[in-house]
């Protein structure tokens, strides 16, 4: 769990550095075997989505974490980045509202950024 928390810190930092909007972290470790954490973030444009994806990829690679799977990079509306213990969802505002993952995973525990230090 320590490693996944470190991964969560890195992802949050990468998204915050590139001005990701409304970053939500959900601890799903007690309710799912998919991952320990989901991170959900919004972006205002296609180019910001790409900048956020690039930022996450760069910081994770520099810290020795490999991406297992990525979906939607060319869609410009929703990118999923699977790092095993941490799954990152970067949406445009419209699709984030439509898919509403926060509601779907509301059994998980919200992680506040203060918990990351």
Automatic annotation (TrEMBL):
Note the SUPFAM superfamilies from the entry: Nucleotidyltransferase
Q: PANTHER family, alphabetically?
A: IOJAP SUPERFAMILY ORTHOLOG (PTHR21043), MITOCHONDRIAL ASSEMBLY OF RIBOSOMAL LARGE SUBUNIT PROTEIN 1 (PTHR21043:SF0)
Q: Which InterPro entries match?
A: Iojap/RsfS/C7orf30 (IPR004394), NT_sf (IPR043519)
- What is known about what this protein does? Functions as a ribosomal silencing factor. Interacts with ribosomal protein uL14 (rplN), blocking formation of intersubunit bridge B8. Prevents association of the 30S and 50S ribosomal subunits and the formation of functional ribosomes, thus repressing translation.
Protein's UniProt name? Ribosomal silencing factor RsfS
Q: Which GO terms describe its molecular function?
A: ribosomal large subunit binding
Location in or out of the cell = Cytoplasm
Per the record, the coiled-coil ranges are none
Pfam families assigned: RsfS
HAMAP family membership: Iojap_RsfS (MF_01477)
GO CC terms on record? cytoplasm
Taxonomic lineage is: Bacteria, Bacillati, Bacillota, Clostridia, Eubacteriales
Biological process (GO) annotations held by this record are: cytosolic ribosome assembly; negative regulation of ribosome biogenesis; negative regulation of translation
For this chain, the family text in UniProt reads: Belongs to the Iojap/RsfS family.
Please describe the quaternary structure of this protein.
Interacts with ribosomal protein uL14 (rplN).
* Keyword annotations from UniProtKB, A to Z: Cytoplasm, Repressor, Translation regulation
